Amino acid sequence: MHFALTDEQRMIVDTTRAFVETELYPHEALVERHGHLPMELIRELQAKAMAAGLYAANMPEDVGGAGLDTLSWLLYERELGRANYALHWTCVARPSNILLAGNEAQRQKYLYPCLRGETWDCLAMTEPGAGSDLRGMQASARQDGSDWILNGTKHFISHADIAGFTIAFMATGEEDTPRGKKKKITAFFVDKGTPGFNVRNGYRNVSHRGYSNAILEFDDCRIPAENILGEVHKGFEVANDWLGATRLQVAATCLGRANRAMGHALSYAAERRQFGQQIGKFQGISFKLADMAMELKAAELLTWEAGWKFDQGSVTDADMAMAKLKATEVLAMVADEAIQIHGGMGLMDELPLERIWRDARVERIWEGTSEIQRHIISRELLRPLGA
Ligand SMILES: Cc1cc2nc3c(=O)[nH]c(=O)nc-3n(C[C@H](O)[C@H](O)[C@H](O)COP(=O)(O)OP(=O)(O)OC[C@H]3O[C@@H](n4cnc5c(N)ncnc54)[C@H](O)[C@@H]3O)c2cc1C
Asked: Given a cut of 80, is residue 131 above it in pLDDT?
């Protein structure tokens, strides 16, 4: 086993951290206050991220990305994750890996413009009636000649307001399985502006101000067959093949924010004096710091190990579920304790802690809730025993 970072990984961490602190932190207060990211600011920061070689760094070299191995990419994600989500997500974008599943014509139309920063993608799976149980989706597509007609509603779709297109997962049939009927799903590219495709503002959200979600409506929306991503009825297979590491990305960005909160907690414990001494000298505070550091380390080790195994081809769903579950729960704990250590000041928006605490909440819900992660882990434990 080898736990040290390579020189290249250290450079990735340093470059990304410097970019985040110099270019993103100064705009956080504005985004928090207005809940909106002006397009001029997006374009300005996007250009800087491109110049620094950080834009779309998740992509392989042969399509113009940085070609990072999974562990190095997760280290980069951890550093980006320190900043306001809307800022790092939109301005240092990472197009979804699922775009790599497209054929060359689809790559020309969708992937490369994302890499050039001309547009953004968004993924539409969740519906008002189908969240964790995606196979229960009602939105559907039916074939009409060589075209497909899409109908239904998706909600909670992240950054669909600025995306130029969506990849919509639609039910295209049903099959009988030993556990009853199961929907067959197909993935479609749908361009903004296509008749019958409407994007409405979503909900106001306690977490990640400035990072919008939208409601997507499909009303007899006609799509040519060339817009199918992967094969008909194989939408989940495409998603499973290409979105594998998304849960690790969530884990890594959570680690970034947890590290930032930890840094504030440590400094404050060393500086703040009450009853004639630094509060860090009270065991009530120092033991909190010890637990925070230990939990953070455990979450990092789970995440880095899963990232390493991903590239070895030996990662399991449970490995990634454990990393996501632990990192999101540790972020919640560290953010909460960091506020406690700061007393009243922890709740004031002079510090990023109240924001990190609010932002932590969504992480246990999106990309599979904590209950679903526990389900994945326990299933992997019990299945070999026939339970
Ligand atoms: C801000 C935000 C952005 C999002 N962005 C996107 C996006 O870009 N694209 C997209 O497609 N989706 C997106 N989502 C959707 C997200 O993935 C879902 O919210 C999530 O999968 C949970 O679905 P749900 O909210 O419908 O909750 P439900 O599935 O209704 O769950 C409700 C509760 O029941 C529990 N539960 C459900 N099933 C089980 C079970 N089998 N065992 C135990 N407990 C269970 C859940 O854990 C949860 O506690 C986003 C969500 C949010 C909040």
From this structure: yes
Length of the chain equals 387
Q: What is the CATH classification number for the domain harbouring 216?
A: 2.40.110.10
* Mean pLDDT, all residues of the chain: 96
Q: How many domains does the chain have?
A: 3
pLDDT at 178 over 90: no
261 and 234 in a single domain? The answer is no
Mapped to the 3 state alphabet, what secondary structure does 127-138 carry?
ECCECCCHHHCC
Its pTM stands at: 0.97
Nearest to 253 by CA among 133, 352, 356, 153: 356
Domain extent at residue 58: 7-96
How far is Cα 353 from Cα 333, in angstroms, rounded to an integer? Answer: 12
Please list the helix, strand and coil fractions of the chain in percent, rounded to the nearest 5, in that order. Answer: 55, 20, 25
Render 52-113 in DSSP notation, one character per residue. TT-TTTTS-GGGTS----HHHHHHHHHHHTTS-HHHHHHHT----GGGGGS-HHHIIIIIHH
Pairing mode, strands 147-158 and 140-144: antiparallel
Write the Ramachandran bin of 319: left for phi over 0, alpha for psi from -120 to 50, otherwise beta: alpha
CB 370 within 8 A of CB 363: no
Q: Is the pLDDT of residue 78 over 90?
A: yes
Residue whose CA is closest, atom 48 of ligand 1? Answer: 369
Q: Identify whether residues 258 and 229 lie together within a single domain.
A: no
Question: Is residue 157 within 6 Å of ligand 1 at its C-beta?
Answer: yes
Tell which one of 89, 132, 374 to mutate to probe ligand 1, the residue whose CB is within 8 A of the most ligand atoms: 132
Q: 3-state class of 234 per DSSP?
A: strand
Residue 367 annotated among the catalytic residues of the structure: yes
Assess whether the C-beta atom of 243 lies below 6 angstroms from ligand 1: no
- Give the whole-number percent of the chain exceeding pLDDT 70: 100
> Which position has the token pair 């454990």?
322
Whether residues 201 and 249 fall in one domain = no
